[in-house]
Fold this protein.
Amino acid sequence: MNPVERFVAEMQPLLQGGDGAHGAIHRCATAEEAGRDILALAEELSMKRLVVAARRELDAVAAILTEEGSKQGLRIDRDRMPATKGTGLDDTFRDAADYAAFDAGVGGADVLVAESATIGLVAGAHEARALSLLPPVHIVVAPVSRMVERIHDALARLIPSPPGEHDPGIENAGEGSPTITFITGPSRTADIEKILVLPAHGPSHLYVWLVDRL
Amino acid sequence: MSLSRLREQFRQALADPDLAAPYERATATARAKRAAAAAELPDYEEQRQKAADARREAIDHLDALVERFREAFTRDGGTVHHAADAEEARSLVKRILSERGARTVVKAKSMLSEEIALNEDLIASGWEVHETDLGEFIVQIAGQRPSHITAPALHLDRVDIGRIFHEKLGVDYTEDPVELATIARRLLRERFLQADAGISGANFLVARTGQIVLLENEANIRMCTTLPPLHIAVVGVEKVIAEVDDLGPLLSVIARSATGQKLGAYTSILGAAGPPERHVVLVDNGRRQLAQHPRKREILTCIRCGACLNACPVYERIGGHAYESAYSGPIGALLGPHHLGTDHGRELPFASSLCGACSEVCPVKIDIPELLRLERERYVETGGADVGERLAWWLWSKVMTRPRLYRLLARVGRGILQGPGIIAEGSSVLRDWTDGRKLPIPSSTSFIDQWKHQGGATTRTNPIWDRTRAQRALEATRKAKRSWAASRGRAGRGKDRKP
Amino acid sequence: MIELADSVCSRLGLHKSHREGKIVPASMDRGDRVRIHLFVPCFVDHFAPGVAWASARILQRLGHEVVVPESQTCCGQAGYNSGFHEESVEVATQWVRSFTQADAVVGSSGSCVAFVRNMYPQLFENTPYAEEARRLSERTWELSSFLVDVLGVDELGARYPVRATFHDGCHGLRQLGLGKQARRLLAKVEGLELVEMGRPDLCCGFGGSFSVKLPELSVSMADAKLEEVLATGAEVVIATEPTCLTQIVGRAHKRGLPLRAMHLAEVLDHTGQEAVR
């Protein structure tokens, strides 16, 4: 099993709640395909408002969503990079709480971990932390090229040694030590009789598109 | 507390016929999941060793790493505070909150905050504190205490929780876990968005980078550390690790050991990007003291995964509350004598059959039975054992080193036990055994006597020169013990200070 | 007489010479068999002599010489686990003195053997017994481990038609890696049907002085173990730990349950001639 297949296989059980599927994982060739799939999903789930992260690599996806979305009554908000890079602050673009108003947050991934189907995000102006936290649905569009085998590899990639030298592949990560979120499936709890319940406080659904060329 | 009080406490817990069932069920599930998750990772043992090494390394260089963490965290714009004990930790948190005019607090699950009784103090001082982990939330509104390090509401079933929600939150009764979780989600979502401050603990502090690592499944910790403008992490000093590299092995074993997951749903590694104000309150509360002990420092390598509780045949019978400590189970019994989380934990090391199921699963390889035994030694050395017990073991050591006397006394003893059953069964000396179990019936003749009688080959020791040597051995042991005790005495000044 | 494989000699740490195709431990004073010092745990000596007899007979049937140091009393574990370190060293010294001439020591309790093997080196560190304790710790085996791991024997010609279950004593299991050896031996016992418990490794709750210091807890743990045992429908519970058996069956009989307990050695000693008890 290659790492991408492993990622897909590991992701499947994470998306299963006691009450059915809490997301899906797809592989596609281009950003366009991912964009159209997201439109179909938005229609199916009767979504009204989506927010797309500021990452430049999501420009194409954002463009399709904006163009085609208006036809189905879908409003797309796009986060923008702040004028000055490296403010060191998270969520500079809007108030973190504002993200609660969206039906879904469309973001990317700075690393993908095959072993555990984990999505690694570096916080900063290119993607606000709250985008993957407050909306009930978290959508990830990420290039397969960011796949690594293990969490060890992901840590080595995202946390530079010595500090201050950032991976050029990670946009606008800010200064100082990076803030990283590893996401492994939708929010969950088993605090009542060890029975799995999805979601707890975070997103209820996680949809992932692994794109060959993004 | 005395051993007899501990016994009484356990007796009361065991008298509740419904107590064990939820613990049995939950720990059985957890054990199976852990075993499967460990088996699934081909190099699990290697990762476990690396995780154990990383934690030992960290405790060996505790002060240097704490300082390194402080530098890095400060460089990234945060503030580090040092608290010598629980009292100071609580006042530091209150001062930080007061200075920023923060009144409402959302709180992520933290065992340390249980240890220092932070919630009680904040609430008594007028703060509004909301526990946000579902289990902690349930326990908080019920006015109870957590019963497990990682599963605070483990002692309650869905009917209990349905009733608690109905009574305390005024919602319609439901025992559906999904509905119950939804009620909590809705209620707490508002509180996350409105809170002035988020308080969390930490799973690890990375010394080089100044990052705070927090692991969870629910996303409540992400909420607490993302939404409010002020984040305070209240953390035991021992949580520091040297390097980011150490996280690979630690993350590989911690979720597997706690819940059987490869990784929890969310692993937050908080660096410079975060709320405008970030504070870390580093709490000592006896930890540096413990770090001085050549052997017991190992206790500090604990990563609070709860696997030892799930494996423990004692915990499963008496539950988490009978320990009367923030930390229950085997690790709680180890922390007890050091006053971490309890005022009366000196006897807790006796609450173990030393079966070793805990260390078998410990992801950082803490030799819990051996450390419990060391605590028992300290209990005896510091006068914990009563006169009767001390006399009994002294006699034991004298009789067992005199084979002829021993055989003679054993013959007498066997005779008594063989006498009319009623005498033996009813004897008060033996009641602690016979109340619950039949006495084994001794043989009229010992094996060794039978063997000799039948002409079996035997060997003997040379009683004269060998006894002299035995005496020297004992003196060497005493001497080693004295020098050890002396070094401990120096390191251990003020050891018994209460939090 | 038995032929000792190279591996056996190396595990015993014995010199070997090839004579008539037989590998002979050079340090033995008589012929080509192993001279085994029988370690009779105090509990076995007074309460279960049958276990020691069975152990001795099994070893003798395999062609070995069995000798019993008559000055042995107790390994010292009981005091050690209760926090009485010094007293324990004193008692353990008696054990070392008793076995000092031994090339191979075999005992019928996993827990006592584990104490000698794993704790003696550290217990006697920096004492005049350090060298001897270390040497003996490497030469002391629990019976099932000696049979399977050292002698490479698993077929003893035992016959015992009964439905039984096997309890893993904690110290034997976790400190010596015992369990698989006993199961291999039991698999070869004719007529014996071994039904595994869901949790064969669940502690029985004995724990030495723990059993009388916190008796209610200890008994409650015995009940949990009994539930496991009873669920198998076994008539007999087998173990390599005499004290576990006393705890389990002591509780069973207090509750009026007809369970029987047998030490592994007693089962293996059943050669099929005698009537089943």
Notes: Chains C and A do not touch (no CB pair under 8 Å). Chain C has two domains: 6-150, 159-268.
